[in-house]
Amino acid sequence: MLTGPGSAALRDAVHGLRRHWTPRGLEPAAFFTLGAPSYLDLAPDPESGVYQKRADGSRPLLENSFDWLYARLAAVLGEHLGAPVHYPEHLALPGFHVWLSAAVFTRPTAPMHFDLQYRAFSWPPGTDLKRQISFTLPVRLPAAGGGLNLWDVSHQQFRHALEKGWIESAADLKRFHAMRYIPYTVGRMVIHSGHTLHQVAPSTRVEPDDERLTLQGHGVWCDGRWLLYW
């Protein structure tokens, strides 16, 4: 997706918009978002209106600041997936996770999860919710690296095990499925279905000036094209 200098320039541009970052978690905040992630702003309370307000409010800023990035993303994903992509006006644009050094995980304590936030939306006719993607573009990583932990188990398998009483939560699946670590490379996008159990992987150590900055988004198949959102 991006060269080394391109990633560095993108990082500087995101930091230039720091006054627009949304702090997440306990104060003093070290984890922020730029944009409106549906898993934080919509899925917990779809009726609150918070997601739509932040999605609509952040769109002009993101479009004006990163129009070249969204064009590049559409071109790369379109070629890789063999179908055009579209950014629906009523959904949030793909946005950024920013973990400053104090928030970078050094232990595997991030939630293990499936990306199911699309369930909180109403989708147009022709949408196939069994066909979705999640993607991450690392822009900056800690010196010790970063990546994704992945378990080869689907959400359907998880639901079956839950109904059978074999497990009580997604975390219990670790007992039955081996973990695979997917290392990230700055500028290289990672794409997966979102329906496979996954987790933000920890870094082995954190330096004082470390940072984990990523572009995040999802896509749902609808009538011959992919609808991208966050």
Structural write-up:
The protein has 230 residues and is α+β, with helices and mostly antiparallel strands. The chain has a single domain, classed as Jelly Rolls (Sandwich). The protein has helices spanning 4-15, 38-41, 50-81, 155-164; strands spanning 22-24, 31-34, 85-86, 95-100, 127-140, 147-154, 179-183, 190-192, 196-201, 211-222, 225-229. Strands 1, 2, 3, 4, 5, 8, 10 and 11 form an eight-stranded mixed beta sheet that branches. Strand 10 and strand 11 form a beta hairpin. The longest helix is centred in the first third of the chain and has 32 residues, at 50-81. The protein is globular. It starts with a helix and ends with a strand. 32% of the residues are buried. The model has no long low-confidence stretch (mean pLDDT 95).
Task: Provide the descriptors you would attach to this structure in a database record.
single chain; 230 residues; alpha+beta; Jelly Rolls; eight-stranded mixed sheet; three-stranded antiparallel sheet
Reconstruct the topology from this structure.
Layout: H1 4-15, E1 22-24, E2 31-34, H2 38-41, H3 50-81, E3 85-86, E4 95-100, E5 127-140, E6 147-154, H4 155-164, E7 179-183, E8 190-192, E9 196-201, E10 211-222, E11 225-229
Parallel strand pairs: 3-11
Antiparallel strand pairs: 1-2, 2-4, 4-10, 5-8, 5-10, 6-7, 6-9, 10-11
